[in-house]
Amino acid sequence: MSRRNPRRAYDEQGREIPPPTIGWLRSEEGDHTAFVHCNATDCGHEATISTDRFPPGLPFPDIALHLRCSACGSREVGVMRDVVGIYTRLGRRTGWGMGAAGALLTDYRVVGCDVP
Ligand SMILES: [Zn+2]
């Protein structure tokens, strides 16, 4: 059995499914943010960060390789699409949701540095 990259998805035949890159998400989805969370035991720190400083060709899940938790220093960091940002843009475009500014959570903020 071949070794699998934990940051990649695989299909039923075990073939790697290519992840979207930062550049693709910017141009196709308008994504400039990512939701990151610390996987260290007893930490659970999480934040929304800007992806603007990462090169366009970087696979989205590999952002995690460049991050370290600002709360505990762990490199066990997970990355997900910024769902709050996605729904906020959707709401602005379609009028769906809670109005122009209402869709954002009160604690939503984008941290512009390396660490979650
Ligand atoms: Zn942490």
Q: What is this structure, in a nutshell?
A:
The chain has 116 residues and is an alpha+beta fold. It has two helices and six strands. Helices cover 17% and strands 19% of the residues.
If you had to describe this structure to a student in words, what would you say it looks like?
The chain is α+β, with helices and mostly antiparallel strands and 116 residues long. It is globular and about 45 Å long. The protein has one domain. It contains two helices and six strands. The protein binds zinc ion (ZN). The site of zinc ion has 8 residues, from loops.
The chain-level mean pLDDT equals 82
Low-confidence segments, given as residue ranges, are: 99-103, 112-116
Number of domains: 1
| SSE run | EEHEEEHE
User: How many DSSP helices?
Assistant: 2
The largest sheet has its strands arranged as 5-3-4-6
What is the CA-based Rg, rounded? 16 Å
Number of strands: 6
Secondary structure category: alpha+beta
Strand content: 15-25%
**Gross morphology:** globular
Distance between the amino and carboxyl termini:
34 Å
Q: Biggest sheet, open or closed, and with what strands and sense?
A: 4 strands, mixed
Helix content range: 10-25%
Give the SSE layout.
Blueprint: E1 9-10, E2 16-17, H1 22-29, E3 33-38, E4 46-50, E5 77-81, H2 83-94, E6 110-111
Parallel strand pairs: 4-6
Antiparallel strand pairs: 1-2, 3-4, 3-5
The structure holds zinc ion (ZN).
Zinc ion (ZN) is lined by residues 38, 40, 43, 45, 69, 71-72, 74.
